[in-house]
Structure formats: C-alpha cells, structure tokens
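Priority: medium. Attachment 1 of 2:
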C-alpha cells in the first residue's frame, strides 16, 4: 500500500530525483563535446543493463518476453530509441535550459496524442493550455531572431517521441510485463547503436568511462527516488517537481558551460511550465478518467535508463481493487 501520510517526504524525494536526472544530463553534455551520440548511448545502455536486471529481480509475473501487443511495443521501442538519440544530441549542442524548455512541451503533446490513442476527451480548458504552451515553445525558439539548428529540431523530436512513448505505456502498460516494457527499448538501443558505433568510435580514457558510469548510477538512483516519491505523495504533488530541472539547468549551465538564460528562453519556459502545470492540476481534479499526463510518472523514454512506470504499474496490477 502507498504511504501518503507524509507527502512532504515524497515531494522532497521527487526534487532529489529530478536533481539527479539533471546531473545525469550534464554528464551527457560533457561527453557530447568529445564523442558521437551513437557511442554515448551505446555505453550508457551497456553500463545500465546490470542495474536494470537488479530492478527486474522483483518482477514476479509469470510469462515470457514476447509482447502481448507487438505492434504497439514496436512503435514504442522505435520512439524511445529516437527520443534517446535526439535528446542526447540536443543536450550536446544546445544550452541546457533551452533543451529543457523544449522538452517540457511533452505534457502538451501527451494531451493531444491521448485523443486518438487513449480515446480521451480533451475539453476547451486543456486545449487552451496546449495552445498557450506551444506558443511558449515558439517564444523559446524565436524563429525570427534565432537561427534554428539541428539541435532544436532534435529537441522537438525528443519531446514528441517521449510523449508518444508515454501514451503507449498508458495504453498497454497494465497488460504487458514490466520486463518487456523496460528491456525492449534498451535492447534495441544496444543493437542499433552497436551497429553504428564502429563508424564513429573514439577510444575512451578512464575519466570519461567514469562519466558514463556516473550517468548509469545517477539514472538508477533517480529512478529509485522517484518510485518512493510516488508511493509517499499523490501524483498531482510529485509530477510538477519535474520543472525544477530548469533551475538545475541554469545553475549547471553557468557553472560548467558558461551559459546564461536569455530573456526569450526564460519567458518561453515560464509559459510552457505554466501550461504543463495547468494540465497536471486539471487532471488532478478528477475530470479526466485516463489522466495521461498525471500518470506518466517518468521522464521521457530514452531507452538508456530504467523507466519507473512499469515497476509502479506492476505494483498496481498486484492490487486488484485499485483503479484509475
């Protein structure tokens, strides 16, 4: 049973989790200055596999690794691989705060995709939030004043791919094994990046290998912290904590990369965050049966680190009386 008696501890754990995720992204950016994304993703997955196996040791579901929904699983796997590549590339070439501001559009996209995939009904209030949030993305990009680069396109694709993957998990997550949901994107990343990596491989000194190990460890610890956060506090309190990453982006960008947040990025990020918060709180009022944004409960699916949603879904499936 979830312990919601002390929601403050859940909120603090969520803040810690997203701080760890932000530190993980700093490691990605540092490595992105020296290595191709294929190599970063490949070794990130390689070092994360043992940690995922440890997490899956608690999976007591009986079954095979054959998916019950092969086409949805294939689409989700493809979107996760694309999301990981695009997100890592955008972190490598764009300021941290700018990448986060664009990725924060994912809840808006989830809201839209929930209509055809989940059969959700999106009413005028959430449509207005989506439109306002997308205006915020345009403010961040400022196409009239800033030369749009491949990194901006990659960040937008990562936001879309992460949203698509999240909505698919909401559709099939209660029927697919946690092992299938967690392993397929990682195995696909390992195979695809492994094939491409020899063309871009660079030898790695011990210090850089340490960065890769730090990435894997931080993502693992952040996932554990986020699981505990959702067990200690309601989702409507935990989900908004993801936006704290913009604070870490500002701090880390200034400390390590000599980055500053310009006025356009700050205004656009504020608009996107406000729109996302409105959607979260709107779903938290109980007006939406599926609540796809509120129940995403993970960062964007990249296929490089353990995703907590399957483990939380596994716990829910083991409590038959629990309902959405």
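Attachment 2 of 2:
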């Amino acid at each position: 049973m979830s312990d919601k008696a002390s929601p403050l501890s859940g909120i603090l754990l969520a803040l810690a989790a997203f701080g760890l995720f932000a530190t993980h992204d700093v490691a990605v950016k540092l490595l992105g200055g020296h290595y191709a994304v294929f190599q970063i993703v490949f070794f990130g997955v390689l070092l994360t596999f043992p940690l995922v196996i440890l997490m899956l040791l608690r999976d007591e579901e009986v079954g095979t690794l054959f998916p019950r929904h092969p086409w949805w699983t294939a689409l989700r796997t493809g979107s996760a691989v694309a999301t990981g590549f695009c997100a890592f590339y955008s972190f490598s070439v764009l300021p941290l705060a700018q990448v986060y501001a664009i990725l924060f559009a994912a809840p808006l996209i989830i809201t839209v995709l929930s209509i055809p995939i989940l059969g959700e009904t999106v009413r005028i209030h959430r449509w207005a939030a989506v439109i306002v949030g997308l205006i915020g993305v345009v403010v961040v990009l400022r196409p009239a004043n800033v030369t749009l680069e491949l990194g901006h396109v990659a960040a937008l694709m990562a936001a879309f791919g992460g949203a698509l993957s999240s909505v698919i998990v909401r559709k099939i997550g209660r029927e697919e094994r946690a092992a299938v949901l967690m392993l397929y994107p990682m195995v696909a990343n390992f195979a695809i990046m492994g094939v491409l990596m020899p063309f871009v491989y660079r030898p790695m000194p011990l210090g850089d290998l340490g960065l890769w190990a730090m990435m894997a460890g931080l993502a693992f610890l952040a996932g554990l912290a986020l699981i505990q956060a959702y067990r200690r506090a309601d989702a409507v309190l935990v989900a908004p904590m993801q936006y704290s990453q913009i604070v870490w982006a500002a701090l880390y960008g200034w400390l390590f990369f000599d980055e500053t947040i310009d006025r356009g990025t700050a205004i656009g990020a504020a608009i996107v965050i406000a729109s996302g918060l409105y959607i979260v709180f709107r779903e938290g009022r109980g007006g939406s049966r599926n609540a796809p944004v509120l129940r995403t409960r993970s960062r964007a699916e990249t296929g490089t680190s353990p995703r907590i949603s399957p483990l939380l879904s596994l716990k829910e499936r083991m409590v038959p009386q629990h309902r959405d």
